[in-house]
Write a structure and sequence with these properties.
This protein is mainly alpha-helical. The relative contact order is 0.08. It contains 16 helices and no strands.
Length: about 260
C-alpha cells in the first residue's frame, strides 16, 4: 500500500466540524505552538482503523512519506504504522532474532530522522513511548552492527534529543521514559527531568511533571519525594503541579509552598 493511496483515502474521511474542533484544541492560531498545522477532522479511532488495515501491507519507506504530509492525521497514521511495525518485531520470541532486530533498528532510525515531523504533543505521546521507549529496553545492533543492549549508545541518542533546539524532539526524549518507568527503571526519567528542569515551554514542563508523577506511581513515591526535596523550589509551578497530582491534598499544598 502506498502513502498516496493511504492519504487519498483519509482525505475522504474528513469532517469540517471536527476539523474546527481540532484546530482549536491543538492551538493552531497565530502565535500558538500548533500554528500552521492542518487538520482533516478525523478522530483517532478512525485513524487507527486505517492503520489496522494498512500495517501489514505498507513498507517502511511509504510510512516515512506519510510523515511529510501537510495533514496532521496523515502524519499520525504514518507514526502509528511505524509503531505497529516496531511492535511486530519486538515480540518476546523475536527480541534476539537478527532479522527482527534489524527491522526494529530501521524503524527507530527512520523515526529519529523524521522526529521533527511529530510536531504536536499527541503525535509525540502516541509514538515515543511505544517506539523509542521500547527500543531503550530491547537488544539493538546500533550503532555498529554488534547486537546487545548497547546502553552507552542509547544514552547518546537520548542526550542528543535533550540537547536539541526542537521542542518536539525534546518532548520525545522525555515522554519515551514512560516505557522505562513501566519496567521499574527511573534512570532515564531522572536524567532528563534534571536536564529540562528550567524549560520555558509549558508543554515540556507538563511532560517532565507527568513523567515524574509516573515515577512516583510506578517506581517509588519516596524517590519522587527525594527529587522534589532537591528541586521543588526551582521547578516551574506547572511542572510541580503535574508531578504531585496523585498526592494527598495536604501533601500537595506543602510542596506548592516551596
Amino acid at each position: 500500500m502506498t502513502a498516496r493511496e493511504i492519504e487519498d483515502y483519509m482525505l475522504t474521511l474528513g469532517d469540517d466540524g471536527q476539523r474546527r474542533v481540532l484546530e482549536r484544541f491543538f492551538k493552531t492560531a497565530p502565535g500558538e505552538y500548533g500554528h500552521g498545522d492542518r487538520f482533516l477532522g478525523i478522530r483517532v479511532p478512525q485513524t487507527r482503523q486505517v492503520v489496522k488495515a494498512a500495517c501489514r501491507v505498507t513498507p517502511l519507506d511509504e510510512m516515512e512519506k506519510l510523515l511529510h504530509s501537510p495533514w496532521h492525521e496523515v502524519r499520525l497514521c504514518g507514526l502509528l504504522l511505524m509503531v505497529a511495525m516496531f511492535e511486530d518485531n519486538a515480540k518476546k520470541r523475536l527480541l534476539n532474532d537478527t532479522a527482527a532486530m534489524g527491522q526494529r533498528d530501521r524503524v527507530l532510525t527512520t523515526y529519529l530522522a523524521n522526529a521533527t515531523r511529530a510536531n504536536n504533543w499527541d503525535l509525540v505521546d502516541l509514538s515515543a513511548p511505544k517506539l523509542l521507549g521500547t527500543w531503550l529496553l530491547v537488544p539493538t545492533a546500533l550503532p555498529d552492527g554488534t547486537p546487545g543492549l548497547n546502553a552507552d549508545y542509547k544514552r547518546q541518542v537520548m542526550d542528543r534529543l535533550a540537547l536539541s533546539t526542537c521542542l518536539w524532539e525534546q518532548r520525545i526524549g522525555m515522554v519515551c521514559t514512560w516505557k522505562t518507568l513501566q519496567q521499574g527503571d527511573p534512570a532515564y526519567c531522572l536524567r532528563y527531568a534534571e536536564k529540562h528542569l528550567h524549560h520555558p515551554h509549558d508543554l515540556m514542563q507538563k511532560a517532565v511533571g507527568w513523567m515524574l508523577r509516573e515515577m512516583g506511581k510506578r517506581v517509588s513515591m519516596d524517590l519522587l519525594r527525594q527529587f522534589l526535596s532537591l528541586h521543588a523550589h526551582e521547578m516551574p509551578r506547572t511542572m510541580l503541579r503535574y508531578a504531585i497530582e496523585k498526592m494527598s491534598d495536604s501533601e500537595r499544598a506543602s510542596w506548592m509552598e516551596y
